[in-house]
Amino acid sequence: MGNTVLFDDGVHKNILLEDFAGSGTAVQANQHLIIHNGKGVILDPGGHKIYSKVLSETMAQLGGGTLEFIFLSHQDPDIVAACNGWLMTTDATAYCSELWTRFVPHFGLDNLVADRLIGIPDEGMVLDLGGCPLLVIPAHFMHSCGNHQIYDPASKILYTGDLGASLGQDYIEVSDFDTHLQYMEGFHKRYIVSNTIMRAWAAMVRNLDIEVIAPQHGAFFRGKEMVNKFIDWCEELQCGIDLMAAKMAIPAHG
Ligand code: FE
Description:
binds fe (iii) ion
């Protein structure tokens, strides 16, 4: 548990709040905070187990600044479960895919704050963080059918949510891509829907100037060479229905 500063130019700061969940049965998760001119956005803030720690660390990082946005890449509990707490204790507005705005309230959303959960259209949008335009880009079916990522043009970081997730390694930055594959492969083959969507994503993000790819679970990728290796790998991966269609069978029974 700790903080890693991914970018800081004095006005704009990107902080990785690494694994506030600690050890246990819950999947390891990263929380990301972007602060621009004293305005903040928390990305995929997580569930109740880490809520109070992530909230207090976020407020400490903001100093006298304000939390403007809560970004929810998709609807999974490790992302949205504590959304009500964040909305009750801050004046921030939460954004998630419009596919999920009627599902997130099932985690319990007070009437007082329900109007501060806003749907992101399928095509994405721009969030103005204190004058810095953050691009909310479509990443549907990677893995959720209503899924978005954030590209931050100031730091050149692409926040990929579950894409790029790795589990089980003991480092937070990838230094050897080929060695790292063993921690990523199983998750992507089972959770990401198909190679078709991977190819479309790769073609889209090649239009961005990316220095860091920062997933919501596991280690991040830094530097153009590492970023390109990751995008190339995604583009080629057979996953999801590419593999599952051949495995559909009734379980053996007496
Ligand atoms: Fe997920």
